[in-house]
Q: What sequence folds into this?
């Protein structure tokens, strides 16, 4: 069988099908029964021929430009005795490809998927290879194919020495994934270790000699279990590229990796600001310093023209790779500082302590044969009090430690082409995702609660749900960004452009505790100080709030308590028996648009009064405000605290 390009659709050569057309089942499995007579049969499934130019049909003479961007599925048809078959399939998402690929193997030729149609395609270029059955995905664009690969080290980490330093055992837990083929095979789901997938790379042949010379990859002497697509992405310097392997076929066949043990960004910043001095360095081609056993490298194949290659190092793109790298980094900086994947930060409260910690870190790195380098123009092993790390600029020399966004990163995000496209209202899904990812990063670093951008979060959630639900997201489709989301993004853009310093440290406690609770009908908020209730409010839900979800009612009760009862600046402790509200207040945002609007009001009031909210969860039996949501009137203040109850009694209900 061969694939031919008809300038309007992909078609399998051969004779017509012999069965009559009865119904149409799209590639994603949903049934349609419109316009019979314009279908062909493909492996027992009916697939519809594509439409172009606003739904008008075109014949073989249709021009190339009339084909709208889409994923095209072309599969061979069962051939009746003495006759050939023909079939065409097209879909906005190539859904259920993995399942189709397994069912089609052994029937005829395999599966072919293309994300763009070349101008001139020969029959042999994209035909299925009988010796390598499986899916064939046409490579993406060649925007970065002209960039040379960045300097790649030939150094290799001593895995056994690194494991010997692991006093906690977290790195030893994942080490077999690099050294033990039995443990690696056990990580596959339902025996998918046989593989069989081959995806060609585009334009990677020019890097073959570079990959060989540094020992990153070698020519495959036999068929790899997984031969996947490799591509390059530009590095920050814009002059060199980084090699990445699209390991989604391998990731889908394996179980999820354990936790990375990566610290939360806010905890990372808070820990740095508890010190005065730091030494920063990063691993040179860090992932490629981790060797992979030869019996495991067959799973990290690169599909190339002429001869496939096998990666001999940790695969950048494999779901387990970040976990392995982060846990290895944690071993090197244990009790000395922090690590963020390949970024090492050695800390010290004094200059002497920092230099002692640096000496210990150097010994560990040398013992494990980990090659590091200084960031930017800094001298290696130099201790500083002002530096940039993981996109954050720290100033530990100030009277009060402070931080802000890396000015270079902030300028790129604010004035980037993606930002301009999103603010215009017509941006691709890829551009919006990049801008939104930067917005999340910026709000975390600048301590701006994301609930203030409820419309932006809501649109991102809807778009993300649609993209995740599709088997092959169309990232280059244009999306309409709502005006409300654009206004909020514009407000955040102004904040990032100013890039103010954020002062670290923990504020003093106010000495009071806010108790808030809600029932299906009423809410209550009370303020405790010095072992007594000193003030309180209660009310009944009315209007739209009466039919709201209990989580939103709990958020409304919390907002009333903050606005009406909290006035003293400092850290305000809050006691809430709803885990969703506690989590939303702690991280500054919720998955609910309505809850974000209510929380935004609370945090704006608290910010103007100099209050930092510290929420804590309490069980319902220990919620002291609970009786006042179930018919009990507020006491005369100041009042003694009631005894906590294990559960509500019938007399407490309305």
A:
């Amino acid at each position: 069988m061969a694939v031919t390009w008809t300038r309007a659709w992909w078609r399998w050569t051969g004779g017509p099908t012999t069965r009559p057309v009865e119904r149409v089942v799209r590639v994603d499995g949903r049934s349609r029964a419109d316009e019979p007579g314009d279908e062909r049969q493909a492996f027992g499934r009916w697939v519809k021929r594509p439409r172009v130019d606003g739904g008008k049909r075109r014949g073989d003479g249709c021009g190339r430009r009339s084909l709208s961007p889409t994923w095209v599925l072309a599969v061979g048809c069962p051939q009746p005795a003495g006759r050939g078959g023909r079939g065409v399939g097209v879909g906005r998402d190539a859904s259920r490809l993995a399942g189709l690929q397994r069912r089609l193997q052994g029937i005829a030729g395999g599966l072919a998927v293309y994300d763009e149609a070349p101008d001139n395609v020969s029959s042999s270029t994209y035909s299925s290879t009988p010796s390598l059955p499986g899916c064939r995905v046409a490579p993406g664009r060649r925007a970065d194919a002209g960039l040379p690969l960045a300097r790649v080290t030939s150094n290799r980490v001593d895995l056994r020495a690194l494991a010997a330093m692991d006093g906690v055992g977290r790195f030893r837990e994942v080490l077999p994934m690099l050294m033990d083929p039995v443990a690696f095979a056990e990580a596959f789901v339902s025996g998918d270790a046989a593989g069989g997938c081959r995806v060609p790379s585009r334009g990677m042949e020019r890097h073959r000699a570079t990959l060989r010379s540094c020992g990153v990859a070698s020519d495959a002497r036999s068929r790899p279990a997984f031969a996947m697509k490799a591509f390059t992405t530009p590095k920050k310097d814009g002059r060199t590229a980084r090699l990445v392997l699209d390991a989604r076929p391998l990731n889908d066949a394996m179980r999820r990796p354990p936790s990375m043990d990566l610290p939360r960004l806010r905890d990372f910043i808070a820990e740095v600001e508890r010190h005065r001095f730091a030494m920063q360095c990063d691993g040179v081609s860090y992932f490629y310093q981790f060797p992979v056993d030869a019996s495991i490298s067959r799973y990290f194949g690169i599909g190339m023209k002429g001869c496939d290659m096998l990666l001999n190092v940790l695969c950048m793109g494999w779901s387990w790779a970040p976990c392995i790298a982060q846990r290895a980094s944690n071993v090197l900086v244990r009790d000395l500082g922090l690590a963020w994947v390949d970024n090492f930060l050695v800390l010290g409260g004094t200059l002497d302590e920092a230099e002692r910690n640096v000496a210990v870190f150097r010994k560990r790195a040398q013992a494990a044969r980990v090659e590091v380098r200084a960031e930017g123009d800094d001298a290696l092993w130099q201790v500083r009090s002002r530096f940039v790390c993981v996109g954050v600029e720290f100033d530990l020399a100030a009277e009060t430690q402070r931080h802000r966004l890396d000015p270079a990163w902030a300028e790129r995000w604010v004035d980037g082409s993606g930002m301009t496209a999103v603010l215009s209202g017509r941006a691709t899904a890829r551009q919006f995702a990049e801008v939104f990812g930067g917005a999340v990063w910026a709000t975390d670093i600048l301590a701006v609660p994301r609930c203030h951008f409820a419309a932006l979060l809501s649109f991102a959630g809807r778009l993300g749900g649609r993209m995740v639900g599709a088997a092959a997201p169309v990232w280059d489709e244009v999306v309409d960004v709502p005006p409300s989301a654009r206004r909020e993004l514009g407000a955040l853009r102004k904040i990032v452009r100013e890039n103010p310093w954020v002062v670290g440290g923990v504020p003093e406690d106010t000495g009071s505790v806010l108790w808030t609770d809600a029932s299906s009908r009423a809410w209550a908020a009370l303020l405790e100080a010095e072992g007594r209730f000193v003030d309180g409010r209660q009310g009944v839900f009315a209007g739209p709030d009466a039919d709201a979800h209990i989580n939103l009612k709990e958020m409304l009760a919390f907002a009333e308590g903050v606005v009406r009862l909290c006035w003293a600046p400092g850290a305000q402790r809050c006691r809430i028996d709803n885990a969703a509200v506690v989590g939303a207040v702690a991280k500054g945002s919720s998955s609910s648009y309505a809850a974000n609007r209510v929380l935004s009001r609370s945090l704006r009031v608290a910010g103007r009064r100099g209050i930092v909210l510290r929420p804590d969860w309490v069980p319902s039996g220990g919620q002291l405000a609970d009786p006042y949501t179930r018919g009990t009137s507020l006491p005369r203040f100041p009042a003694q605290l009631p005894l906590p109850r294990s559960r509500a009694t019938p007399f407490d209900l309305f």
